[in-house]
Amino acid sequence: MRNAAERAAPAQAPVRPAELFDLRFRALVPEADWARLPPAVRRRFTKRLGAGESAVYAGRVVETHLTVLGWLLAQGLRLVGAPLPTARIANVPSVVAVTQDRGGSGQIWTRLYARSAGFPQAIHSAKRFRGPTGLEERVGAGLGMSLRVLVEDRALVFRSERYFIDLPGFRLMLPRWLTPGILTVSHCATGTRSFRFVLEIRHAWLGRLLRQEAEFTDQVEACDEISDVPAP
Fold it and tell me: Where does the record place the DUF4166 domain (predicted)?
């Protein structure tokens, strides 16, 4: 039986060992490029999420530019869950939540955009660490894309490579002329716990169709500095 002092002692949360850092994003970037990223970005993308855990980021959409064709594209994609912002919103609250999927093979990303009226727009996507580039992102109705992970101007960048549709037992690769163009998402540190998110779609013939910029701050305590974690 425990004595009174032991019963009164507060429970301590278990300490996560260094080997539990998530190195899956880091493994997709050359070591020299990864070293050029700010510590806050490296820390955010090596944070291990356990079952039932989420990383939450809150902030605001700074601006959203949609050309007429970009707006039509966003409306058409409502058929597969509206994976793009559907309105030219600016200076509205936004929240991003990242959750480890149950199978452990990737992450579920959920973005919420406030609207002037009605419920916020919710955008869901799933990142999977597989495929020819090492990373794929899927939205609704089996639509997805393979992503290249790059470092540009000290920002972590995700850039679409090929679009596809997953059908039962078969993957249909879309020809480039049937796609909206190159999608680029960049993640740039603006402080130790804040970052800038930029989403852009640029078509080879039609130019930029969409650009959205948002700013977020970590809403949970990040894990310790990881600059000394060995490369995978």
Answer: 37-216
